[in-house]
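Regression report. Comparing outputs from two consecutive submissions.

Submission 1:
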Amino acid sequence: MQVALTSLEPKLLSCHELNQFKKDKLNYAAVSSLFTSKKKRKAVHLLLVFVSTKNQTHQQKRTTMAHILTGIVSLGQHILQLSRDPQDYRPLCCPHCKSAKLWQHGFYLHKAERLPSSKRSNDSIQILRYLCPSCKRSCSTLPECLPPRRWYLWSIQQAVLLALLKGHSLNDVSQQHLPCRQTCRRWWRQLQSRFALHTDCLRSRFAVLGRAQSFGDFWRACLEKMPLSQAMCLMHQSGLSIP
């Protein structure tokens, strides 16, 4: 790929062509029609294959569901469980190919508590990793208290959600809790955008939640019945991508 791209002249793409490329980056015919040189078309084709492969790899990482061990609701409980019985964290099968045999593959450190240094404890915790000998891909197991692809614990996110449901402003919430205003806003908007999926999943398990129709009423009723971590684990078990 580097050899092909270095053969191109500087500033190959104009602003219009660059915008067209971004819109149609997976459509080779549309993008290659912008160029007349066979060498340039070949280079663009290689670039499109590279971009398409990266997108597919990112989508696989995003859609592959990590294993979550339910019932571990705090970092202290997670550390204790690791020392007593780490085999509880081993998934029953590979999330990629469904093979039933997984090898332990070390661990990685996860910074789960973003607290001031004076209050910080258990800042870096171990997350066990496993390797599938069939597909040669790895996976990891998270405790229930840790959300996938986020730093902050579910308990912190629940406190932010409850404060916003009570009508507090983003500025007040960011001053009372650790996340900044932009992070709180992003969590709020993501919950709103996935409201229909969340309600369908949880109402199928708890009929009482069907009485709450609005976004605020639903989450208030849900958090009265269970913590946010448990609700997200139930949606994870149903096949939804969380958070």
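Submission 2:
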Amino acid sequence: MFKRFTCFVLTLCLAAGLTLTPVLASEATGAEITEAPEEDGPSTDASNGVTVTVRIENSFMGQEQTLLPPTEVTLESDGDTKANVYNALIATCGTSAVFTESEYGSFLSGIMGVTDETGMYSWMFAVNNAIPEVGMDAYELNDGDEVVFYFVSWEHADYAYFTPGYATISDKDSVTLNLSGVDFMEGEYPVEGAQLVIVSDSPTTRDLKYTDAEGNVELSFMNPGEYLISAVLTNDDGINTISHPYCLITVEGDASAPESPEPELTTDSGLEGVDTQPEETPDVPLAIVEPTGEPAEEPAEPIDFGAIEPMPMPTAPVTYDEKNNTLNVYGADVNLSGVQVIFENNELYLPLRAVAEALGLVVTWDGAASVAIVQVPGADDIRLNAAEALAKGEIKFVGNHIYVPSAYVISNYNAVR
């Protein structure tokens, strides 16, 4: 705890910058924002100032997401205008970057509306996957530098990053990622046991993947597309202990697969001079050949389908459209923001809280007993002993979210409706 508190104080001083000169966002000039690179990593252009890449990550439990994907910004470095971390932040975020005065100086307290209301989280920054030892306005940037602002638990979490951060592979190949953590006091280490989170518009393998003792994990993909890879590593209190890492993998189709040849019309068959186009089919009725000796049956009267009421199709209690990432439970659309649907061993695992709230129910958490409680109006509460169910392999934890099998949702819904 002492190490973490010391880390927090030092990081607070360095991330905010005790020597930070107050500069209004409107005074940051000479910055040009461009689209994120599509190559295997950031590209730079030194012809017009200093070009760097800025990314912003939120690791608050249950809200883990990339707030700003890698975005190139070109900063001028002339006279009083410095190409430093502070000006890179202002150039990309403007007035959404909020600073607060404290006994340690002015520190970064909010970006894009993400602020700490608990006293447990703070904004930090890293450059080229290292934690600088100076403040934002004192760290001058060079062409190609990568700046990451990340929101984490200052007591429990370390900065984390993937190697490689970008990759392009074939859909026939696999890629191995390494996840490293950076402890402010003790340096870099491999992150073991982190669960990968894959975000994509295309389907991919749904097996749960975890980093090994060396921080490595191997991934393969079934379909071409872009896949955003991140990871979470939670402690017993459900707090994510690493920042939100980022890796963009582009999967291309196998261009080496032979294409079917187009049929060619040749005249090597001795039909030179003969019209090879088929004649028009004569407009005559087709004859129905009956077996020998069997009399032909009279044709049945046509059925008037207009006179038959269509049978209503039963509505599935749980439907998931993987292509559009939409989930419907008993006619209610489930909000999948910040959560996912997991396929494993032919089972569909659903986010418990999101499903319950879609059905108008309230979920509370008894941390002392590790029990999730679903409050059902006019009926007994549904109590799920998460620790016991997890030990039996009946549920899953991703971040601080509980995922239950679709059969669990159906059986409990039928019991209380």
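Expected: both submissions complete independently.
Actual: both completed, but the second showed a warning that disappeared on reload.
Relevant detail on submission 2: The CA atoms of residues 83 and 170 lie 38 Å apart.
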